[in-house]
Amino acid sequence: MTPRIRVTGLEKSFGAVKAIDGVSFDVAPGELIALLGPSGCGKTTTLRCIGGYDTPSAGDIEIAGRRVNDLPLHRRDIGMVFQSYALFPHKTVEDNVGFALKMKGVTRPARRQQVGEALELVGMSGFGARYPAQLSGGQRQRIALARAIIHRPAVLLLDEPLANLDRKLRETMRHEIRRVQNAVSISTILVTHDQEEALVMADRVAVMDGGRIHQLASPSDVYNRPATPFVARFIGATNFFEGRVTMIENGRATVQLERGPSIIVEASDNTVTGRNVGISIRPERIGIAMVTPPDAQNVSSVRVEAVSYLGATVVYTVTVPDGPAMQVMSALVGNEPPFKEGANVVVWWSPDRSTLIV
Amino acid sequence: MQTRIANLARRPGLLLLLPVVVYLSAFFLIPFLWLLRVSLARNRGGTGYGEGKAFYEPGTWTLDNYLQFLTDKFFLNITLFTVELGLMVAVISTVVSYALAYQIWRAPAWLKGPLVLMVILPKFTNVIVLMFGLLVVFGSRGLLNSALINLGMIAEPVPMMFNLFSVLLGETILVMPYCVLIILAALMSIDRALLDAAGGLGATRFKAFIEVTLPLTLPAISVSMVLSFMWGAAAFAAPYLLGKPDLYTLAVEVDRQVNWRLNWAMGSAIAIILTGIIAACLFFYFRQSPAEERR
């Protein structure tokens, strides 16, 4: 299938600062890609270049097989939801949602039916006569979404669409946006700094920093197989160690940590003996117990230094004697955490749960 | 009354209104009531010079001044022209100011400050100086005509002063800075994302202007219209200095009645009528526009 959106070698400089430094990716038909990264990573600038709100310094943008670099904003066939929603305050909901159709010359009676359908799709039927000021934040969000998709654009761009909503509403709207996007099957690019949002909503996540894409992969790959130390640290919490590969055997590499024990991890194709590598292990992928279970690998005896009770889970900070500290998270089956500060326990993890980052 | 005083005791902040109340009473309300009183007095006739008496008959009550105003074609023509001038100034200065404010709004950030400064610069000058400045540029022997003659584009100076053009020019220059600032403030309060949104939904720049920018600046346009109408209808300096008798306004006529004909009663009556016209304009404006704008 030909991609709906293709971005190749995109660059954007503001003076001496490179906001985007060589970004390339494809979006398949109906796919939702999240651009995820800290503020200033270039994700919003990338989105604005695709939408035609900014002009790239270099690189190509294709929408539906057509190069759109030189197309003005109003001819790009996009729909965009802004962080502030940018609803027209002087127009009713109906006129807001029908705006793109009006610009195409569709008459009011003909618009009315499509507006009605769009409002129904976002669950806002009957709100057509209201003004934006008379709506709640979540309702405005729905109207902004309806307005962005009513003309069935080739691309839907979402710029931090949930940033202005409270937590509960945000979780609802994640699924709402995805439901609507699936219903109309429009290739979508979502810009967010909220990793949970990216992991929940996107088919693929592009983790960005410093104007580059560090990794573009499925949510589970981004989480479980971070490609760079930045990705490992940015997505979720992680224990990150540095060490040197001392041996490779049967697809497993033995890594001597700078401080502390040596551990066994799954080797990647480009792992070589003697090389300095990073290792990322998620806190919840580490087992913790009083006694070592059979078949456990990478076992260390540790001391519990701190216990953070989080309700559903508990996070222990443990230290290996003469070694690094690490975080271990476990689900709470009982009401109280089983281990207290100062307890001597063992931790372990299987080699395929950790990621070797070259 | 008791409760009002109690209210004041509970909200001592209201005392801060006192200077304003005193100031407005002393310098506006009381003189205005006195003006109203004089307008209802009989004209004294004669000059009254050297007699140590007022230029009206104190203690008399009559509507003669108003009746004379309403029945004399001379005054009605002046009134008509005054309203016409107000309307012309309102339209011209609002249109020109909108264009100017729009360009300032779209200008790069570093240029905005200097442009705004240029707009308000005329306000740093005395009105008389400003009006004679126009004479220097636009007069028969002014810069513009001399330049055109020297360039051989015209043989005789084009008459640009002491006609409707010069009166409108002078009055517009006086009002425009306010209109530009009012409209610019409205433009700057528009969320740029709205224009981005309109563009993304297929609106050309022109359509985005018609659909978004213009409606959102409509309140500012009407304020600008009302303000410049009031200013234009009360015009004195431009018609007096750059006009001629058939371009005189009510304000000029007040001056003529008071200072030349020494008929203070008639002058006061005209002043009251002029105030009435402007007050009526304000009244209709406030009735038309709801106090709370939609947002």
Walk me through the structure:
- With 358 residues, chain A is of the alpha+beta class.
- Helices cover 23% and strands 35% of the residues of chain A.
- Chain A has helices at 43-51, 93-97, 99-103, 108-121, 137-149, 167-184, 195-201, 219-224, 229-234; strands at residues 5-14, 17-27, 32-36, 58-63, 66-67, 78-81, 155-159, 187-192, 204-209, 212-217, 239-249, 252-257, 262-266, 276-281, 287-289, 300-309, 313-319, 325-331, 344-348, 354-357.
- In chain A, α4 (108-121) crosses α5 and α5 (137-149) packs parallel to α6 (167-184).
- Chain A is elongated.
- Chain A starts with a strand and ends with a strand.
- The model of chain A has no long low-confidence stretch (mean pLDDT 92).
- With 295 residues, chain B is mainly alpha-helical.
- Chain B has a domain at 76-248: MetI-like fold (Orthogonal Bundle), CATH 1.10.3720.10.
- Chain B has 13 helices and no strands.
- Chain B has helices at residues 2-10, 18-39, 64-71, 73-106, 109-120, 127-138, 143-150, 164-188, 192-200, 205-233, 237-242, 250-260, 264-288.
- The longest helix of chain B is centred in the N-terminal third of the chain and has 34 residues, at 73-106.
- The chains are: A alpha+beta (358), B mainly alpha (295).
- Chain A binds chain B through residues 51-53, 72-76, 78-80, 82, 84, 86-90, 99-100, 102-104, 131, 133, 147-148, 151, and chain B through 191, 193-194, 196-204, 207, 211-212, 215-216, 294-295.
